[in-house]
Amino acid sequence: MNKTALRTRRKADSAQVADFAPESMIELRGLVKRFSNAAGEFTVLKGVDLTINRGEFVSIVGKSGSGKSTLLNMITGIDHPTEGQVVVNATDIYTGVTESQRSKWRGKNLGIVFQFFQLLPMLTLLENVMLPMDYVDLYDFDQRPARAMELLTLVGLEKFANKLPVLVSTGQQQLAAIARAMACDPPLLVADEPTGNLDTRSADKIIQLFEGFVAQGKTIVMVTHDPSLTSRTNRNIIISDGELINETVSRSLPQLRHRHMLEFTRIVEERFYQPNETIISRDQHVDQFFMIRKGQVEVVLLDEKNKEYIVSRLNPGEFFGEIELLRGDTSIANVRAGSNPVEVLTLPRTDFLRVLQESPITAEALGKVVQQRLDEQRIADRRSAIR
Amino acid sequence: MTPIIELHEVNKTYSTAAGDFVALKDVNLEINAGEFVGIVGKSGAGKSTLLNMINGVDQLTSGEVFVQTDGKKLSVHEMSEDGRAMWRGKNMGVVYQSFQLLPMLTLVENIMLPMDLSDNFNPRKSKERALELLQLVELEEHANKLPAFISGGQQQRVAIARALANDSPILVADEPTGSLDSVTADHIFDVFEHLVSEQGKTIIMVTHDAGLVSRFSRSLVIADGELVDSQPESNLDKIFLRRK
Q: Most buried one in A120, A263, A289, A375, CB count within 10 A?
């Protein structure tokens, strides 16, 4: 093999160290991407801000054409933003960095897995896994086969190490592609529909592997259509029409259509409360829908002796105020911040009710929550009466 | 004229939990240099297995495969594993349905890869050659792009250029147009025809699409692991009608 040639061609200075929070693996700031074609100018990303921390397992979901592949291409340094900044693993990857520096940086920092595995047909699985080590010139020449074998063992393919890709199943090919992506021990793995053309069992094996990588501290960003996979990630980011959906909105109202989520994302207001601060008083008129972003919220009733009674504690991703909005009523309980500061997002009543009318499936899901909460309340009321 | 490829009584049997499965049965075949041969048949008939016997990717159960290499008749399955890999790298280009371009390398770097691996050309020469090959598949203007920025059909053309990197006399292709639309598939065929007529390459291509047979210089029909008859039309109809 002509290693020297590969090495010299890839040699480049280390890229710039950026201003960043040490716990963040990916920071996107004001990211805009515009394409021009014969039909005119088209904005694919419309000012995206996003922070992904080290050790997070994040899924990115979006309809075809929503901008998710473009977003991924920005993170991997494959495409260039029109405006904004991309910081990945402490490196500002587009400012003052040449294409060859970026390529070198990518080799050391990123593992990439695509839906269609790019194994080279003329190389065995072992040789395919060794390839990135040759490119980046990481690990001693003599250590590379052993390291590649370790990775193949990790993905359960040690028996097939010397086979050519065409002689193993598509699921096994994808496992080998994952082993290859991890060859240079990158801190970040980016996967685009990695289970897209696999059967359920193979897909499950791949997600288990990913969970193992995350347990070791790796960060994984995965684009997928499959809800059974998004449920296994720590965080689910939805992109719609070039904008990111507010994650508190999507967690609180997951049944909403993406366009409704996007509408809410644009109009929500933030509110901050100190520990134990009242958010809604009993009998107060409620004209907002509240979604919890951070902290715990307590729903409190008073018994006949005016003694406080906590009916329920609500956590991030849960909501309140819906009973009053739906019934056009005053609050049936006191709602206050728990023992830590609380951040909530609010929506105006009219917008909330209009979208519910357009989204029967959300209305139905909310209806169930309301019913359950009213039942809890009645039980609590009875209990306090007995006291 | 000595055939460039000869198969003598080739048999391939797979052992499965359900018993032995005969994938190829007593296959005898001669292919001459400069032929554009299509292997057609329905799914599971043994097309890909036959291809894997010719390029020595898979082991045969019995029989022999000879390929003319540097003026000598070489028995493919008698070489050592490593020897066969080396031989294949120099003598057979391979193209598969899924494109297998490395996502982090530009198109020109993808094509240079087999040359770097085989040490056949020095680095400057390999870049020149890669650019010439990109020109051949009419993609020279995209040379420095990453695969993500070109269409599926263009990626497949790059894969063909890569398969030609070491200037191997034989090209084997397994469903190379399988995931492409008909216009793009047509363009791939144009490239193959050019390679046969202008460069004297021998091409063996597997397809399940009976509509393509008119473009081969010869079609081999395979059914249940046996070569049925290489005379087209009537037999083809039988094979493909049976599928319906």
A: A289
Mean of per-residue pLDDT scores for chain B: 86
From the candidates B55, B59, B116, B127, which should be mutated to test the interface with A, based on the most A CB atoms within 10 A?
B116
Given a cut of 80, whether residue A311 has pLDDT beyond it is yes
- Residue B26's pLDDT band, with cuts at 50, 70 and 90, is very high
Q: In chain A, how many domains are there?
A: 2
Which strand ranges, in their side-by-side order, compose the sheet holding A269-273? A269-273, A342-348, A288-294, A319-320
SS3 of A92, please?
strand
Question: What distance in Å separates residue A214's CA from the closest CA in chain B?
Answer: 23
State the pLDDT at residue A46. Answer: 95
Task: Work out the pLDDT band at B42, boundaries 50, 70, 90.
Answer: confident
Query: The whole model's pTM is what?
Result: 0.79
Query: Do residue A167 and residue A77 come from a single domain?
Result: yes
Write the pLDDT tens digit of every residue in B181-232.
888 888 888 989 999 999 999 999 998 877 788 889 999 999 999 998 655 4
- In this structure, what CATH number is given to the domain that contains residue A114? 3.40.50.300
pLDDT score at A319 = 92
The CATH class of the B34-57+92-243 domain is alpha beta
Is A79 in contact with B149 (Cβ distance < 8 A)? yes
> Could you tell me the residue range of the domain that residue A107 belongs to?
3-244
Question: Best of A1, A2, A44 to disrupt the B interface by mutation (most B CBs within 10 Å)?
Answer: A2
Residues A92, A69: Cα–Cα separation, whole Å:
20
Of A106, A107, A119, the CB nearest to B100: A119
Say if residue A71 is in the same domain as residue A155. yes
- A166 contacts on B by Cβ (under 8 Å): 48, 52, 57, 96, 174
Q: Where residue A13 falls among pLDDT bands split at 50, 70, 90?
A: very low
- The domain spans of chain B are 34-57+92-243
Please tell me the predicted confidence (pLDDT) of residue B99: 54
Do A230 and A259 lie in one domain? The reply is: no
Tokens 């990717």 sit at which residue? B57
C-alpha triplet A269, A274, A277: angle, nearest 5°: 95
Report DSSP state, residue B204.
E
Question: What mean pLDDT is predicted for residues A59-81?
Answer: 90
A119 pLDDT more than 50: yes
- DSSP category for residue A98: -
Give the CA distances from residue A361 to residues A254, A303, A357, A365, B13, in Å, rounded to whole numbers and listed in that order.
10, 36, 10, 6, 55
Instruction: Give the type of residue at A312.
Output: S
**Are A206 and A298 within one domain?**
no
Q: Rounded CA gap, B134 and A157, in Å?
A: 35
Task: Tell whether A205 and A292 lie within a shared domain.
Answer: no
